[in-house]
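Course assignment 3, question 2. Fill in each field.
Student: A.L.
Task: Predict the tertiary structure for the chain below.
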Amino acid sequence: MTRYELPIEDPTPDLSPTAVRILDAAKRVLRRDGFRALTFEAIAKEAGENQALIRYHFGSKAGLLTALVDSVLYQEAVDLIEQLTAVPAGEERRQTLLRIHEAMSDDRDSYQMFYEIIPHVLRDDELQPHLRRLFEWYRRLDTWALDEGSDGPPQQARSEPLAVLTVAMVDGLALQAIADPDLDLTPALELWRRLVLDCVKSCAPDGAGD
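Answer field:
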């Protein structure tokens, strides 16, 4: 069964226990207080470590942010791969992909951290390519999961534009849910599911979706 490489490597195995504590402390500060509070002083206080150790282990704030982004997104990437490769290509895999996206759109805690970081990553010449590669990987994965074929090369001309929309949809729904905690995403998600599946069938080669 075709497997895609992960877009990022787990940053934690090669880190010392002190570096792991610093990274965990940075997540807590970011989640609780937002990006503006993510200073070396605040992280050091949260971790119970000296500020100099943050520079020793991560070099700069950009280095810390890279490790932080990877750490936040790594397990999500692993879960996607495991769930999608566990089911056969075609309808079952597409349904699995949509269920995963629906669950992700309601993961407000993870997306809160994601949206705290993104504006700053986009303005950083060192970090922006890292984010671009991540989105490229997610689009390739969705293209592959949406494809009609049985683990062969995806029909990119047909599936790739739809994959761009599925990635945009989950990110956009999550943002709206964060902004409006009372928003019920269920009707939109049901409509989105029907639109995606109808599009896949109507675009199937040789009338296979008829």
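Instructor remarks: The mean pLDDT is 85. The radius of gyration is 19 Å.
Grade: pending
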